[in-house]
Write a structure and sequence with these properties.
The strands form two sheets. A seven-stranded mixed beta sheet has the order 1-2-3-4-5-9-6, with helices on both faces. Strands 7-8 form a two-stranded antiparallel sheet. The protein is built from five helices and nine strands. The protein is an alpha+beta fold. The chain has one domain: Aminopeptidase (3-Layer(aba) Sandwich), CATH 3.40.630. The structure holds coenzyme A.
């Protein structure tokens, strides 16, 4: 498997991006403004992440997804490590990520990759998504914000 930058003009792996974010409008917006990286195996995109500069010195990991058939094999961890390395090499001082209160596996992944919790945006998903979201029987209401100094 290799991870490479997505180049403008290539088809964006929308199905993958929508695994992480049910809003096609949000996805379209940050893909056009951020940098997209793709994990490829045998010429197929099996993973993706998007980095978006948000404030001076700060970049956010706004989307990360691994094809369902390939989950649980360490690819998500490799993508997060790659994103951290990219952010460092570009001179950012902080990398941030946000996830739902119900995204237990994602909260585990980010903390295993060095992120610490910094805050909670209460009712973020209630305000911004028209449909209710449930994961593992938990309603996804609040955005848990995490960050890491680089
Ligand atoms: N409790 C504890 N640890 C957990 C866990 C849980 N419930 N769920 C996952 N983890 C751990 C794994 O054990 C692994 O750590 P380890 O290597 O120390 O065992 C780590 O989190 C991630 O495993 P990995 O195989 O690298 O992840 P992945 O390739 O399956 O990718 C996602 C992770 C989140 C990218 C993938 O599941 C995905 O695409 N999900 C759908 C999209 C999504 O939700 N994106 C994030 C939006 S915030």
């Amino acid at each position: 498997m290799k991870i490479r930058k997505w180049s403008a003009g290539e088809a964006v792996p929308r199905d993958l991006l929508l695994l992480a974010d049910p809003s096609p409008e949000f996805v379209e917006d940050y893909v056009s403004r951020g940098e997209c990286f793709i994990a490829e195996a045998d010429g197929q995109a099996i993973g993706v992440y998007v980095l978006l500069p948000t404030r001076p010195g700060t970049v956010e990991l706004v989307n990360i997804a691994v094809d369902e058939k390939h989950q649980g094999k360490g690819i998500g961890k490799r993508l997060v490590a790659h994103a951290i390395q990219q952010a460092k090499s570009k001179g950012y001082r902080t990398i941030e990520v946000g996830t739902g209160n119900s995204s237990i596996g994602q909260l585990a992944l980010y903390q295993k990759c060095g992120f610490r919790m910094t805050g909670i945006d209460r009712d973020f998903f209630v305000r911004h998504y028209p449909e209710e979201i449930f994961e593992q029987g938990i309603q996804c209401r609040d955005m848990v914000r995490l960050s890491q100094d680089l």
